[in-house]
Amino acid sequence: MKLEALDRQIQVFVSDLKSPKARSARLAQVAEDGIAEIQKSNAAATGRPQLAPKVTVDGRAHAALASVKPDGVIVAEFDQVRTVLDWIGKALVQESPVLTGKYQRSHVLLVDGVEHDPTSPAIPSAELYRFVNRQPYSAKIERDGVLAGQSPQSADGVYMVVAAVAGRVFSEVAQISYSTKYFDEATRLMHPSIVVRPY
After folding, report:
1. Residues 6+ apart with CB under 8 A from 39
2. What is the Cα–Cα distance from 149 to 146, expressed in whole angstroms?
3. Hey, which of 11-20, 48-57, 89-98, 147-156 has the most confident mean pLDDT?
């Protein structure tokens, strides 16, 4: 399964409708149905509800679909990269071993090397996104042929497993890989990480 393309266009024929109000209503209904279909398809592909798209109606952000002009344009932008990052972030928390909760709370998203504020509603566009856990023992939780998995709750590791699943689920959106070679300037240690490079 794959996520729907960002730029899918739907041509709506309204010339057969004489009333401007009816043409506007047809455009709004087609847009509403199309958005719902894409969200349903993407939710099935990711196993998670999707974020609402950014919608502009005749160039107006957040306007009601029903306010479209009879010959207007509705654009819905689905942020596929945000969907990928949201999925990985939640999966890391869910798969984390929980003893004190410290490891579970220490996952960080770096956007082109800069730590992203998790309270921010938007994630900036970037060439490279990286998830890393800044706990000094994070490498011990992973199993990579050299380090044995140290947690019975995560016997196969956390980052390696989440990267493998995300790489399969989101193969149409980004290149997702697991790395053990990330040197974190903040901790001065090598940490496992998940690297996301959008296509």
Report:
1. 49, 50, 53
2. 10
3. 89-98
Greatest pairwise CA separation for the chain in angstroms: 71
**Amino acid identity of 107?**
H
Q: Which of 19-28, 144-153, 156-165, 169-178 is the least confident region? A: 144-153
Report the sign of the C-alpha dihedral through residues 88, 93, 95, 96, in that order: positive
Who's near 40: CB < 8 A, 6+ residues apart?
Answer: none
pLDDT band at 101 (very low <50, low <70, confident <90, very high): confident
Secondary structure of the chain in the HEC alphabet?
CCCCCCCCCCCCCCCCCCCHHHHHHHHHHHHHHHHHHHHHHHHHHHCCCCCCCEEEECCEECCCHHHCCCCCCEEEECCHHHHHHHHHHHHHHHHCCCCCCCCCCCEEEEECCEECCCCCCCCCCCCCEEEEECCCCHHHHCCCCCCCCCCHHHCCCCHHHHHHHHHHHCCCCEEEEEEEEEEECCCCEEEEEEEEEEC
